[in-house]
Amino acid sequence: MPFLITYFSCMWVRCVLVSLLGATFLLSFNGYALELDDRTYKTAIEQECHGCHFDNRMKPVGTLPNGSRKWTDQKCVACHTEIDEIAYNYRNKISDPRYVALPVKDKRLESMEKYPLSYLHAPIWPMFEKQTVRVNRKTLAKFLNAPHGTCDGNSCNAPKMMAYTNISEDEVIAINEHLGAIPNESDLEVKGSIKKGEALFKQSCSMCHGNSQLSGYNANAMSLFSADWIHQYANGKAVEGRTMPKLPISRHDAHDLYAYFQHSRSENEEALAKAVSQVSADFEQLPTGSIPPKALTYIWNRLWRDTGCVHCHGIEGRAKEVFNMAGKEHIEQWLSENDPSILYQRLAIREKEKEFGMGATPAGMPATGRPLPKPLIKLLGIWIKSGCPNEKNENICKEKWNHHAQ
Asked: 289-295: long-range contacts at Cβ-Cβ below 8 A with a sequence spacing of 24 or more?
């Protein structure tokens, strides 16, 4: 995987927008050792799962003369880990021959101490803990469709995990033979009492799990775990790094908690879906107008890199197959052949995912990053409704959008 990294800071992009458009313009838009690198993967999703969560994720396909390792495009953890190593050496003035060929600004290497790259702490085989299954097939599939983020008392963060919307339980299990050990949802889990589970949660769990601040898991996030794992963990299952005190509960209690966690997730899903349904209406309310030349220059030359889009859409993989951002000609082609309002919608949905602390369907973008600043999303919406003009002010979007600019 070629080193391709961008630094996106909401405040920094806002400053760029002000310089490009002027403040007035902005205001007006108010284990298992498996050698899988040499086999043909069944799906791109399978490649990504192996690249982040399976044992062979740190296996390079080669080494460059300066010591940098060569990674396939799906080895996210490995590539980011190596960049993080180089950044650490740079900050601590440790000589590293890989630094010279790394296309990352020194300023970004410095900032990685405070704003680290994603994927650095992705766990290996997170479905299991010491060969104990922590999930069932339903909870794992639901999590992959719409991962959870974290929430404190006042706000939430969008999920850092990539979403795999519409993936089924059978498709999840087919990713690897070992996932066949994951059980189906049991009848006892289905029959758990939501009311009793909620009462037990409020009495014994909410002090630490009322939000994600202390534990990383609120009630919505704990919908990932099976009742069996809830029972084992609460009763003192030994886990590395465990800080939670032992909380003796019965299996009936675990089934009730499980039912409550599933209910909590469902309620959050419904509220998020309602908020997402408003995005299209928000787009229709946007005005059209003449886009300042400096803004057009920024959109066509800097936007896709500054916001991190090319990190997935500029390298080989399923993201590039859907929307190729490797060059201006590819971006123009996508805009002319597709409904460009999708771009606005997916960016706006990411803000909703942050608000509710979980993934939506369709998933928001950037897939693993923070939402783009609202003024920038608004600008892109207006640009789309105005015909997606290029730097020559020629409309690129298909006809259904061009009429807005007339």
From this structure: 289/382, 289/386, 290/386, 291/379, 291/382, 291/383, 291/386, 291/389, 292/20, 292/21, 292/22, 292/25, 293/391, 294/19, 294/20, 294/21, 295/20, 295/21, 295/379, 295/383
